[in-house]
Specification:
By secondary structure, the chain is mainly beta. The strands form 3 sheets. Strands 4-3-7-5-6 form a 5-stranded mixed beta sheet. The C terminus is likely disordered.
């Protein structure tokens, strides 16, 4: 497979330098045909952003190219010119998704556990391992009261043979604590400024009834 990072402009003097892969010489060189010169491209940051429409099921992947010193706010402004919004005054947010969960690695990256800070520079955002998701901010989330709390929810499965009903659980760092009807859910979740609060979820455990897909492995010998 090709390396995660491309060879920089004038980053190798000889062909053998370009073929070294984990201290071994490969006989395959991967290349991509660009639409702009490589030196110009290296001055830009390219991000692939999945835009989820507010009222439609469609998801469209947009490629955003901006100078490396641009901010998340610049990404959102550029994205607004490319997508269909539910109304002209709709606000967008950018989420970092890892293994289908909204994720945050460093507290200062996100303003409210959900979105990147608009002032954050995009140079160090890595979309190779994370999925960048853009979506409209729902109106009911814009004016949260002092006692309102946003709770992340995800689905999970444990034992598909015995798990035939839906169960609700509080999950912290991946460990489920099943909830009783008398539990007050909001009391389980920490304040948003407490370290680790981003790794707390309301989990919905249920069986997997989706049809299994078969994958065919194809090899091409060159």
């Amino acid at each position: 497979q090709p390396k995660p990072q491309p060879i920089k402009y004038r980053g190798a003097e000889r062909l053998t330098d370009m073929l070294v892969h984990y201290n071994q010489i490969s006989d395959i060189l991967y290349y991509e045909v660009l639409d702009i010169p490589l030196p110009e491209l290296q001055g830009l940051k390219t991000l692939k952003v999945a835009f989820h429409h507010a009222t439609k099921d469609e998801v469209v992947i947009h490629t955003i190219r901006l100078p490396k010193q641009s901010t998340v706010g610049d990404v959102i402004s550029d994205l607004k010119t490319k997508v269909e919004l539910s109304h002209p005054d709709a606000e967008l947010r950018l989420l970092e998704v890892f293994y289908h969960k909204i994720y945050k690695a460093v507290a200062c990256w996100i303003l409210d556990l959900l979105r990147f800070s608009p002032a954050r520079k995009i140079e160090n955002i890595n979309d190779q391992y994370w999925t960048l998701r853009a979506e409209e901010i729902p109106e009911e989330e814009k004016n949260l009261g002092p006692h309102d709390r946003l709770i992340h929810v995800y689905h999970f499965m444990k034992d598909t043979a015995q798990n035939q009903v839906w169960k609700f659980a509080f999950l912290s760092l991946g460990r489920p604590e099943y909830l009783q009807d008398s539990d007050i859910v909001s009391s389980r979740f920490q304040r948003r400024d407490v370290y680790g609060a981003w790794e707390q979820y309301l989990g919905l455990e249920h069986s997997d009834n989706a049809p299994k897909r078969s994958y065919a492995a194809n090899q091409v010998k060159l």
